[in-house]
Amino acid sequence: MTRDDFNTGWSYRRKATPFQELGGAGDTPWTPVTLPHDALISAERSADVPGGHTNGYFPGGAYEYRKTFSAPVGDRGKLVYLEFDGVYRDAVVTVNGALAGRHAFGYSRFLVRIDPHLHFGADNDIRVACRTHLDSRWYAGCGIHRDVHLVVKEQAHLDLDGVRITTPDVDDDLAVVDITARVGNTGPVTTTLRLTAAVIDDDDGAAVAHGTSPITLLPGDADTARLRLLLDRPRRWSAETPTRYSARIELAHGDQVVDEEEIFFGVRTIQVDARRGLRVNGKPVKLRGACLHADNGPLGAAAIGRAEERKIELLKSAGFNAIRSSHHPASSALLEACDRLGMYVMDEAFDMWTQGKSDFDYSADFPQWWERDLEAMVAKDFNHPSVLFYSIGNEIPETGTADGGRWSRRLAEKLRALDGTRLVTNGINGFVSALDVVLDGMRQQREAGTPGGEDDAGVNGMMAAFNELIGQVVASPMVSERTEESFAALDVAGMNYSESRYALDRDLFPDRVIVGTESWPSVLDRTWALVREYPHVIGDFTWTGLDYLGETGIGLVRYADPAGPAPGFSTGYPGLTAYCGDLDLTGHRRPVSYYREIVFGLRTDPYLAVRRPQHHGRPIAVATPWAWSDVVSSWSWPGFEGEPAHVEVYADAEEIELLLDGASIGRATVGGERAFQADFEVTYRPGELVAIAYRDGAETGRTTLRSATAGMRLALTADRELLRAGTGDLAFVEIAVTDDAGVVQNARDADVRVTVSGAGVLQAFGSGAPVTEESFAANTHRTFDGRALAVIRPTAAGAIAVTTEAPGCEPAQLTFHVAAPVPDRLDDATDLQEIA
After folding, report:
1. What are the alphabetically sorted keywords of the record (predicted)?
2. Which of 82, 275, 541, 745 has the fewest CB atoms within 10 Å of its CB?
C-alpha cells in the first residue's frame, strides 16, 4: 500500500462548461495552486453580493481544479483511490472525462476510486468541480480546502479506515488494546493472510505489546480480524498529558508484506453522570471550551496542517482545554494537532437537518446523505483520543417538534452503532426550537401595535434585551416540554445560550447532564460560576475562541451618530469578520481572552485595558451580548493628552490600585460593572501606568503599560525559523509597528509591504481589522492597532528571505531555513515479523 500527498501540481479557475468554452465565454486562464486551497478568499468582495454580511461580502461561484497524473504501469490491477479530506461543496470528480465520484457535503472526508478510469503508463486528466452560493450562514470558502491523498492498494489489503483501536479495559497496571482490522480480497483466489500488530511507545520507539493472527478470505470477500493486546503500566492520554502510542499494522501474504498502517492512539477512559460530572481517566474535568468556525483567517477556508496546529497552540496557551468544531466535522489535520498537543474535541456534524437556514444549503441533501456523512465523520475520528463528543447538530429548529425528536434518535443511534465509545450531544437552542411560537407572538404584537416591539424600542433597545429575552424563553415550560424528546436522545444535553436552564434542570431532569455548547462572552463570569457550582454542568464553549470571516460585526461595539442612521445588527459593507473571538483573526489575544483566563483561575497577575478615548462619552448604539468592551491593552493615545479615559483592570482580587509614573491615581473595588473587573476614570497623560492587585491588604500581582515614545520601527516575530518542505507547513510572522524601545504604536497604523524570496511564497497577509476592503492576497496591508500577520509557505528545501517595508520605517527582515520533508515513519519501522 502507498499513501502519497496529492496536493501539488494542481491549477484552478472559475468553472467553464465545454459549451461556454466553445463560444469563447468560458476561456478562463488556469492558475497554479498547492492544496489545501480556498478559491474564494482572493475573489473581489462587493456590497451587492448575495448573502452580504453573512459571508463577509465574498461572491459565490463555481470553480474547477485540474491535475495531470501519470499512472505507473505497475499499478494496473491494483485499487487506486483519491482521498479528499474536504471539498466545499457539491464536489464532482472526473478522471479522463468520466465521472468517478461526487460528494454533496463540504466538510466530510470521502473516497473516490479512480483505477477503472485510469490510463496506466500514460498521463491522466483529473478534475474536481465545486461551488458555493447562498449555502452557508458564515464564510465557507470554496474549493479543495483540505488535504488530498493518492492511495494505492493491493488486491489483498486493509480497507481504508479499516483499522480501529479501542482500550475497553484500563487500570494503572494493565490496558487491553483491542485492534480490529477490516481486510479485503478482490483477487480471484482464496488467500490466507497474516495480520501482525505492534504497539510502540511514541517517546522511545520501543515495542511494548504485539500480536498476530491469520485470516482466510474467499475471492471478493472481506472480513474483520481482531487482536487483543496487553499493555503494561499504560500511560494515559488527556489534555494535560497527551501521551500517545502508535500501532504498526502489517498484512502479509507469506513473506511478502502487502499492506501496512501506522495508527496513533491514546489510552483513556470517559465517564459522565449528573452527580459526578465528566471524568477523563477517572479524574473530574470541567471543559473550558472554545467554539471554532472552519476558516483560518487570512488563509480563508484552507485547512493547511500548520495553520490547524497553530490554532490549537494559541487556544491552549489562552487557557482553553476543549474545542467545538462549529458547525462542521473537523479536518483530519486539526484532530491530529489536538491529539499531539492535548485538546478535547466536540466534533459536530451538521448546522441543519431537513429545514434550511440558507437558500441552497445542505438541508436539500440531508435526507439522502446524512448517514454517509456520519459514517465518514466516525471513520475519520475513531482513532483520535482527543475526540470525546459527537454533536449531531447546531440550533436545529426541528428539535422543538416530535419529528425532530425522531430525527434526534435516528442520528444519535446511528452514531452509537458506529462508535459506542464516545458521548453524543446536540447544540440545542431552546429559543430556536420554539422560534415558530416566538415569531408568531412577535407578529401578533406588531399587528396589535403593542409597545415594546422592535419598532418601539429600536435596535439599541432590542439588542439590550436580547440576552434577557432568550433566557426567559429557553427556561419556559413550553421549551421544557418541546425539547424533552430531543434532549432524551442524547448522552449530554448541549445547550446554546441556555444558562437559565442550568439550575432549573437540576430539579426538572435530575439525571440530565448539561454542557454549554455556546455562550455569550459578555457574561462569561456568570456562566463559568454556574459551571463550577453544578456537577451536572460539565463545561462551557464560548462563541468564539477565534474571530472568523462572515457574520460581520456581531461582536463589534458601535456608537451612535446623530448625523447618520442608527446602526443595524451587522456592520454593512465592507464588514469582514464577526469580531467576537477571544483571539482576533490573526491569532492575537484580545483583552477578553485575559479576562477569561482570570475567570478560569489560570492567571494571577491583573490585566490592563483602556477604552478607546476617541469614543469617550459617546452613547453606544449596538453592543450585542457577543461584544466585549471596546478596549485595547495600550497606554499610547497621542492627541488625547489631557482628555478623559476609562481604564479597565481585570483581576481575581479584592481591590486594585492604579499608579501613573509612580503616583497613585486611586483605588477601586473589584466587581463593579463586571465581576473580576475594576474601573477607573482618569485623565490621559503619557507615561507608565501600573495596576496593583490586593487581597486581604496584601499585593497579589501587578502589571504595567508604557506609552510609546519617539521612533517607528517594524518588529517581526516568527513562530519558528525551521520549516519543512511539503504542503503542510507554514511560517506565521507577526508584524508590529513599535517605537524605538519596542512598545507597540497601536495608534500609528502603517501600510506594510511584504516581499518573499527564495524557497517560499507569501501565502496570505492581513490584520485583525473587522472592517476593511483590503485583500488577503495582496502584499500590502494596513496594520490594525499596530499589528498585522504575514503567512509564508515553503515551496522547496532551501532558504526563505522575508522583507517588510513601511513609510517612515527602516526595512525589517527575517530568514527561514526549509529542511527536506521528514520520511514516513513506516520506512524505518521495527520489523513486525521479528517481533511476532
Report:
1. Glycosidase, Hydrolase
2. 275
Is the CB of residue 82 less than 8 Å from the CB of residue 353? no
Query: What's the average model confidence in pLDDT over 592-609?
Result: 98
- For residue 221, what pLDDT band results from cuts at 50, 70 and 90? very high
CA distance 473 to 535: 24
DSSP 823-836: PPGGGG---HHHH-
Upstream peptide bond of 36 is cis (omega within 30 degrees of 0)? yes
Same domain, 24 and 112: yes
CATH number of the structural domain spanning residue 78: 2.60.120.260
**Domains contained in the chain, number:** 5
Structure letter (DSSP) for residue 429: -
CA 521 to chain centre: 17
211 lies in a domain?
yes
Helix or strand or coil: residue 214? Answer: strand
Examine residue 372 and say whether the peptide bond preceding it is cis (omega within 30 degrees of 0). no
pTM score: 0.95
Cα–Cα dist 582/310, whole Å:
15
Domain stops at, among 121, 153, 185:
153
Cell numbers 496557551 correspond to what residue?
317
Residue 292: all three cell numbers together: 471554532
Specify the 3-state DSSP secondary structure of 443.
helix
Tell me the C-alpha distance between 233 and 228, whole Å: 16
- DSSP string of 149-181? EEEEE-SEEEEEEEEEEEEEEE-SSEEEEEEEE
Mean pLDDT of the chain: 94
- Between β-strands 514-519 and 537-542, what pairing exists: parallel, antiparallel or unpaired? parallel
Beta bridge partner(s), residue 94: 99, 127
Based on the domain organization, do 257 and 205 belong to the same domain?
A: yes
> Can you say how many angstroms the Cα of residue 524 is from the centroid of all Cα atoms in its chain?
20
| Domain boundary, last residue among 153, 185, 208 | 153
Residues 726 and 663 in one domain: no
| Residue 539 in domain | yes
Domain that holds residue 397: 303-546
Residue 173 in this model has a pLDDT that exceeds 90: yes
The residue type at 801: A
Residues 209 and 251 placed together within one structural domain of the fold: yes
Is residue 611, in this structure, part of any structural domain at all? yes
What sign results for the dihedral spanned by CA atoms 79, 80, 84, 85?
positive
Q: Are residues 190 and 311 in the same domain?
A: no
Q: Output the domain CATH number for residue 725.
A: 2.60.40.10
pLDDT of residue 832: 56
DSSP string, 27-65: -PPPEEE-SS--SSTTSPP-TTSTTGGGGTT---EEEEE
Residue found by looking up cell 483511490 in the block = 81
Domain contains 565: no
Count CB atoms within 10 A of the CB of residue 644. 12
Band of the pLDDT at 829, cuts 50, 70, 90? very low
Q: What is the mean pLDDT of residues 674-692?
A: 97
The neighbour count for residue 646, using CB atoms within 10 Å, is 19
How far apart, in Å, are the Cα atoms of 488 and each of 481, 484, 495, 535?
11, 6, 13, 19
Helix %, strand %, coil % for the chain, to 5?
Answer: 20, 40, 40
Band of the pLDDT at 453, cuts 50, 70, 90?
very low
At residue 452, the pLDDT reads 45
CA dist 326 and 332 (Å) reads: 15
* pLDDT tens per residue, range 331-369: 999 999 999 999 999 999 999 999 999 999 999 999 999
- Whether residue 671 sits in one domain with residue 691: yes
Cα distances (angstroms) measured from residue 294 to each of 325, 381, 802: 7, 17, 28
Supply the DSSP symbol for 588: P
pLDDT for position 355: 96
Distance CA 290, CA 10 (A): 34
Would you state the cell numbers that stand for residue 221, as one nine-digit string? 470477500
Segment holding 240, helix H or strand E: none
Alpha helix stretches (DSSP H) within 449-586: 454-464, 466-474, 477-488, 502-508, 524-533
